[in-house]
Write a structure and sequence with these properties.
The protein has about 425 residues and is mainly α. It is about 75% helix and about 0% strand. The protein folds into two domains: about 70 residues, no CATH class; about 350 residues, no CATH class. The radius of gyration is 21 Å and the shape is globular.
Length: about 425
């Protein structure tokens, strides 16, 4: 594994150019009519390549995601902008008609992460008790590191950081479980994207009731058709100004709300309500939804969601370049631990989806709202339809609220399994 800063290309502008070239290559080849490319993209989703190709460049040492400032910029500016532009065309009343199954699938995802971690640790301990004892009982203990993964997989980065403090996780221990988190979570997202491409067949087999979801899709498509037009310069400037303007406003308000809550209600920190990024996501989504009830919704006809999708794809590429596939060979048993954990989650989601006959969309987005959070839940949702991204955002925001508390419960169970 290459050392930080030892990458062949370290310039942020150069790395950004490479990432955009990768995205262009993927979309260009996916649009080709050649039968080989069509066959290839029937098996490998284009969205998945937008994630893994930057990861491959990072693995080979051509670029270094950890040495780059691109991801924080994409997270803080492009993600909120994407949320605004993807939610501005929301059919909120149609989303409400989706019913309770989406929430049931999300809560199943949360419960399976809480239970799956201790179960995975117990199974690994049955195979080799020395593995549980690895790192002793102090900051390097395996169970302590796992609490940070629980925080990330139920809520997000803020919850993950909270678990590091709450359970006194050592820096080295934290770093190795970040690798487990990133690799396992992204491989699971690959599975979800694969399922998204086969949703119709799976829903038919499961006899899932997709009428509410289909109605929402049709309403969105009908609205887009009625208001579609060739965008002019004024349209594009308005769209970009609206997206980034609201992002700026969200940051300003979050900079007031989060410190105020931290000062006057510090207990809310365990619910991530004192997190600046939490409020940026909440406010950007809320403003976007509010604008969907106004004339601003007509900007969808000029391509608002498409520009939002471009922002999302750039974000995906910057996330992907943090992935180093070779870490799986350094401590493979840690990744086996993560694989068992995510398998418990996946099996629980599939069983619940079968029991309540939930569409694949609910299962996939409910899962990713937990495992990936606000950064990737709308990505998976948009794989079904770009304008369904708000469903993923709303569930992911709910996950931020549950993340710290549920991860704390998971941590106590992990402590018990480890015998501490």
């Amino acid at each position: 594994m290459h050392e930080a800063g030892a990458a062949l290309i370290r310039s942020n502008p150069a790395v950004l150019g490479i990432l955009l070239a990768v995205l262009a290559l993927v979309f260009w080849t996916s649009a080709l009519e050649h039968r080989w490319w069509k066959a290839f993209y029937r098996v490998v989703p284009a969205l998945l390549l937008c994630y893994f190709l930057p990861g491959l460049l990072n693995t080979l040492g051509i670029i270094d995601g950890h040495d780059s400032d691109l991801y924080p910029v994409a997270r803080d500016y492009l993600l909120p902008t994407a949320l605004v532009l993807l939610t501005i065309s929301s059919d909120f009343s149609g989303m409400l008609r989706l019913g309770p199954k989406a929430l049931v699938m999300f809560l199943t995802g949360t419960a399976s992460v809480v239970i799956g971690g201790p179960l995975a640790l117990w199974l690994i301990g049955m195979l080799d008790p020395a593995l549980i004892a690895s790192g002793g009982s102090g900051p390097g203990a395996v169970w302590r590191g796992m609490t940070t993964v629980a925080g990330s997989w139920i809520g997000g980065g803020a919850n993950q950081a909270a678990m590091k403090v709450v359970f006194d996780v050592g820096s080295d221990n934290f770093a190795r479980f970040i690798a487990v988190d990133v690799l396992v979570a992204n491989l699971w997202m690959a599975v979800l994207l694969w399922l998204a491409g086969r949703a119709a067949r799976i829903d038919a087999w499961n006899r899932a009731d997709t009428r509410a979801l289909d109605d929402l899709r049709l309403r969105i498509e009908r609205f887009q058709t009625q208001h579609a037009r060739i965008p002019g310069l004024t349209d594009l400037v308005l769209i970009v100004a609206l997206g980034f303007g609201i992002t700026g406003l969200a940051h300003v308000l979050a900079g007031v709300i989060a410190p105020w809550l931290a000062a006057h209600a510090p207990g809310l920190e365990r619910f991530s309500l004192t997190s600046h990024f939490f409020w940026v996501v909440v406010l950007a989504t809320g403003f976007g939804l509010a604008l969907s009830f106004t004339r601003a919704r007509r900007l969808e006809g000029a391509g608002a969601s498409r520009i939002g999708s471009v922002c999302l794809y750039v974000l995906i590429a910057t996330i992907g370049m943090h992935m180093d596939l070779r870490t799986v060979f350094s401590e493979p048993w840690l990744f086996a631990l993560g694989a068992i954990w995510i398998s418990v989650h996946g099996i629980a989601m599939l069983i619940m989806a079968r029991l309540i006959r939930a569409p694949v969309f609910y299962m996939a987005v409910g899962s990713q709202a937990n495992i990936g959070g606000a950064a990737s839940a709308p990505v998976v949702a948009s794989a079904f339809h770009p304008s369904l991204a708000p469903v993923g955002v709303l569930l992911a925001v709910f996950g931020y609220s549950l993340g710290t508390y549920a991860a704390w419960v998971c941590g106590q169970l992990l402590r018990m399994v480890a015998g501490n």
